[in-house]
Write a structure and sequence with these properties.
heterodimer; A: 113 residues; mainly beta; six-stranded mixed beta sheet; B: 113 residues; seven-stranded mixed beta sheet; four-stranded antiparallel beta sheet; 54% strand
């Protein structure tokens, strides 16, 4: 059974700092991995999608990497801003035709001005 | 990216009553997904809704408690029946675009009193 773990559960940093959020998964047989952002009480916003054949994806100040063999992904946020404060969720889609996403519990990020 | 409108955005309901949540997508999709996010927890898939057939429920979720309709390729509803305080959660609908990237509605924050 696929399990997704995100460490740390919470992170507080000063504005301008570069930071890394971690995601690990137990079964390397994945179709893709997706990072989301969730603001309090709201839905999910897709940030980056990495296919199983890819090593990384970039969008603006965000860079996500994928090491499928070790079951790890990282989300790098450069020059953090208070507006980046949110919960960041990692989700994997298993191989084998399943459309179901398996989510981690998220990392709650606070960027202090 | 797919645009998903979900309503209501929040509601406070009496125990024993039912609430129907609507999800409208701006493009035709084969499958729509309903997730639940309990307080402090990650997202869990409730069921997959296909147009023209009965929804497929995940382990621990049953049709009598969470009936789903899928009348066409752009719309679905989830009903939370005979509610109890344990049903207080955020409910989210989701679609896969191009069978790869997942998009979510803004969520329905349900409180049962």
């Amino acid at each position: 059974k696929q399990e997704v773990t995100q460490i740390p559960a919470a992170l507080s940093v000063p504005e301008g700092e570069n930071l890394v959020l971690n995601c690990s998964f137990t079964d390397s047989a994945i179709y893709n991995l997706q990072w989301f952002r969730q603001d309090p009480g709201k839905g999910l916003t897709s940030l980056l999608l990495i296919q199983s054949s890819q090593r990384e994806q970039t969008s603006g100040r965000l860079n996500a990497s994928l090491d499928k063999s070790s079951g790890r992904s990282t989300l790098y946020i450069a020059a953090s801003q208070p507006g980046d404060s949110a919960t960041y969720l990692c989700a994997v889609r298993p191989q084998g035709g399943s459309e179901k996403l398996v989510f981690g519990k998220g990392t709650k990020l606070t960027v202090n001005p | 990216s797919a645009v998903i409108s979900q309503k209501p955005s929040r509601d406070i309901c009496q125990r024993g009553t039912s609430l129907t949540i609507q999800c409208q997508v701006d493009s035709q999709v084969t499958m729509m997904f309903w997730y639940r996010q309990q307080p402090g927890q990650s997202l869990t898939l409730i069921a997959t809704a296909n147009q023209g057939s009965e929804a497929t429920y995940e382990s621990g979720f049953v049709i009598d408690k969470f009936p789903i309709s899928r009348p066409n390729l752009t719309f679905s509803t989830l009903t939370v029946s005979n509610m109890s305080p344990e049903d207080s959660s955020i409910y989210l609908c989701s679609v896969l675009q191009g069978n790869t990237e997942a998009f979510f509605g803004q969520g329905t924050r349900l409180t049962v009193v």
